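Re: [ENG-882] Designed sequences occasionally contain unexpected residues at chain ends

Forwarding the minimal case from QA. C-alpha cells:
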C-alpha cells in the first residue's frame, strides 16, 4: 500500500507497519536505547491517531528496535547544567509529564483495541511505565524492568506508581521503586507483572502471532474487556456488576455477538468483523 510507505518515510524516531489488522509500532532510536525526546512523543501521537481512526487496525503491537525496549526519557533532551545554581533555569518536569507522558499513557490504556508489548530488551523509567500501560506483555528472556526514577531523584511517573502497585502489591512495588534495581523478565513473570517470557529469537514471531490472532477477534468486545478491567479498581462490586450489565446490553446488539453464537451453534469457526 502506497499509504503505508508514506508513513514509514515520514517518521524518523519510530516505524509504523500495518498488516492483517495489526498495527506494529517500533520505537526506533536504537543508538539511544529508544529513549524519548520531543520528536518521538510527537511522532507516536500522530501514529496513534492514525491507528485509532484508520478503520482497519484491530490490534497494536508495540516493540523496540535494537537491544533495548525503551530507556525512558532522553536526559540529554532536558539536561540540567551542573554549575547552574539558579532554580529558574531548571526544567519543569511536571510540564513534560502533563504535555507528553500522561497523554501517551491515557492514549494506550484508552485505545479501543488490545495493545501488546513485545519487550525486546530493558524497559527503564518511563519505558517501564509504557510497557505496563499495554494490555499484554510478552518479554524476551534477556529483557528487564528498572524503575530508575529514584536514581535521579524522581518518582515513578507515567502511571508506574499505579500499574506496578496493582500488578505486584505494595511490598514488591515499593522495593522496586525505592531501590531502582533490575527485575529480570523471568522474575517479572513469576511475580505476575507480565504475561509471558519467551526465548529471544522467537519474541518477534510469537508476539506477531498473538497480535494477528487478536486482530481476528470481536474487537468491540475486547475494547470493552480492557475498559472494564482497567477501571475495576475504582468501583465497588455493586457498581462493577452494573457496568457489566450495561456493556452486555450494548454488545448483545453487535454483529460479532450474532456471528459468535451462530458459529457456535453451527460448530464452525467464527468470522468476526470487529463490530
Amino acid at each position: 500500500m502506497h499509504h503505508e510507505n508514506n508513513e514509514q518515510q515520514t517518521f524518523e524516531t519510530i516505524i509504523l507497519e500495518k498488516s492483517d489488522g495489526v498495527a506494529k509500532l517500533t520505537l526506533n532510536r536504537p543508538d539511544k536505547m529508544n529513549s524519548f525526546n520531543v520528536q518521538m512523543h510527537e511522532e507516536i501521537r500522530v501514529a496513534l491517531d492514525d491507528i485509532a481512526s484508520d478503520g482497519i487496525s484491530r490490534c497494536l503491537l508495540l516493540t523496540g528496535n535494537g537491544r533495548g525496549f525503551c530507556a525512558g526519557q532522553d536526559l540529554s533532551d532536558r539536561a540540567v547544567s551542573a554549575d547552574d545554581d539558579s532554580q529558574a533555569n531548571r526544567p519543569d518536569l511536571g510540564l513534560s509529564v502533563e504535555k507528553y507522558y500522561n497523554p501517551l499513557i491515557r492514549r494506550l490504556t484508552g485505545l479501543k483495541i488490545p495493545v501488546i508489548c513485545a519487550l525486546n530488551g530493558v524497559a527503564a523509567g518511563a519505558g517501564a511505565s509504557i510497557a505496563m500501560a499495554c494490555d499484554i506483555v510478552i518479554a524476551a528472556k534477556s529483557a528487564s524492568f528498572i524503575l530508575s526514577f529514584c536514581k535521579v531523584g524522581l518518582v515513578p511517573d507515567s502511571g508506574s506508581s499505579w500499574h506496578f502497585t496493582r500488578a505486584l502489591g505494595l511490598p514488591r512495588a515499593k522495593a522496586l521503586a525505592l531501590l531502582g534495581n533490575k527485575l529480570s523478565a523471568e522474575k517479572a513473570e513469576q511475580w505476575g507483572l507480565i504475561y509471558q517470557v519467551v526465548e529471544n529469537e522467537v519474541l518477534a514471531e510469537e508476539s506477531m502471532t498473538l497480535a494477528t490472532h487478536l486482530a481476528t477477534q470481536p474487537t468491540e468486545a475486547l475494547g470493552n474487556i480492557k475498559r472494564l478491567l482497567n477501571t475495576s479498581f475504582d468501583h465497588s462490586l455493586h457498581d462493577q456488576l452494573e457496568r457489566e450489565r450495561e456493556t452486555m446490553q450494548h454488545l448483545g446488539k453487535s454483529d460479532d455477538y450474532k456471528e459468535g453464537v451462530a458459529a457456535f451453534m453451527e460448530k464452525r469457526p467464527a468470522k468476526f468483523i470487529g463490530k
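QA comment: On inspection the terminal residues look reasonable. The chain is about 45% helix and 15% strand. Proposing we downgrade this to a documentation issue.
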